[in-house]
Backbone:
């Protein structure tokens, strides 16, 4: 009887230890949520208000949340969910997330780590775009329809009203989803899988936001990107790209009062290759960009992304002051792990696969269409 009692006491102590660990994890996540609510008031507002943009404010909040609770890599949690090989802390994190369709809801601290990595992969962020935290599903943001003018006025003379006109863009929390699946064997056997899945998810979300910001159609649930925003200058090339085409677009932007050191040029890899291979003439091996680049190119920041597609051997170049591009993002991203999902009519359970889904909500707005210009129909062949 004493041995049975001792065994019961030991089991109770072990259960209490596990319970205490789960509660500590839960407390840390609740504190993170409180931090998010407190920080989320800066730079945000309801539909109809016009907040001041907070540069990197959204991502600073993500970093705070990530540091407020133990952050586990997404790949680490996926492997733990599949194999059961994990520390007590990691198992408790999965248990605390609860079952979602037979799967797991990844904790907020891990979501924040993925979001922060997404920031580093965003080409628009490297080019200088602004971020606004959306604490509500809708957010009004001002747009410059007509730039202001000023006139000289004599003493005691009436001032002439500036011809500036404002519009508005209603940011709406649209849903961006990254959904992938992998076999249990790959997750269990490949040592590099946790690192790879972290990179893939961050890059997928970054590519989705870059694509929307640069060439989004504005149709359905796709945000309206720079290339399709009314009022932006367009040059249809339909001829071999030359450095003069870039210079003409650059000086057109300066004519719209874009600062000469604030211009970024974004293109896909095929266009970048064509531009890099330009020669002074067909009989020389001297490349223009290495031998005699225009002095203006020292002031232009160039970026390459395949978020700008190629269709029928033609692509688009986007140039402008990217500080006039706004990305609105909500801080309630979700990551889910499920062994029992159905994707395109196929059961992951039947195929011994794991589905991983990431959801992030946000929208895009061009603050001043005059700050951008695009070159279309750029040949890539």
Residues:
């Amino acid at each position: 009887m004493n041995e049975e009692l001792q065994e019961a006491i030991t089991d109770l102590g072990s259960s209490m230890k596990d319970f205490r660990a789960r509660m500590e994890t839960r407390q840390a996540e609740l504190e993170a949520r409180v931090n998010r609510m407190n920080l989320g008031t800066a730079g945000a507002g309801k539909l109809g208000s016009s907040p001041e943009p907070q540069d990197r404010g959204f991502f600073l909040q993500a970093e705070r949340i990530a540091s407020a609770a133990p952050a586990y890599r997404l790949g680490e949690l996926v492997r733990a969910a599949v194999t059961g090989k994990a520390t007590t802390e990691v198992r408790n994190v999965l248990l605390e997330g609860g079952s979602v369709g037979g799967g797991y809801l990844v904790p907020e601290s891990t979501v924040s780590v993925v979001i922060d990595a997404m920031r580093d992969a965003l080409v628009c962020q490297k080019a200088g775009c602004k971020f606004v935290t959306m604490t509500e599903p809708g957010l009004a943001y001002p747009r410059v329809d007509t730039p202001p003018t000023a006139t000289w006025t004599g003493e005691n003379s009436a001032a002439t009203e500036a011809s500036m006109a404002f519009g508005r863009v209603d940011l709406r929390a649209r849903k961006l989803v990254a959904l992938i699946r992998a076999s249990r064997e790959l997750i269990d056997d490949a040592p590099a899988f946790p690192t790879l899945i972290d990179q893939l998810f961050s890059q997928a979300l970054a590519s989705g936001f870059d694509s929307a910001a640069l060439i989004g159609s504005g149709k359905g649930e796709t945000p309206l990107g720079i290339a399709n925003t009314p009022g932006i200058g367009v040059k249809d090339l339909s001829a071999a790209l030359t450095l003069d085409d870039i210079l003409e677009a650059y000086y057109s932007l300066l004519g719209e009062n874009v600062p000469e050191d604030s211009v970024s040029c974004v293109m896909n890899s095929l266009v970048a290759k064509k531009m890099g291979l330009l020669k002074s003439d067909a009989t020389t091996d001297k490349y223009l960009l290495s031998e005699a680049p225009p002095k203006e190119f020292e002031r232009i920041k160039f970026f390459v992304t395949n978020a700008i597609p190629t269709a029928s051997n033609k692509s688009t170049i986007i140039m402008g002051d990217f500080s006039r591009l706004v990305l609105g993002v909500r801080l309630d991203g979700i990551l889910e792990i499920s062994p029992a999902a159905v994707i395109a009519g196929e059961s992951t359970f039947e195929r011994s696969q794991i589905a991983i889904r990431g959801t992030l909500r946000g929208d895009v707005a061009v603050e001043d269409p005059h700050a951008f210009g695009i070159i279309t129909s750029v040949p890539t062949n």
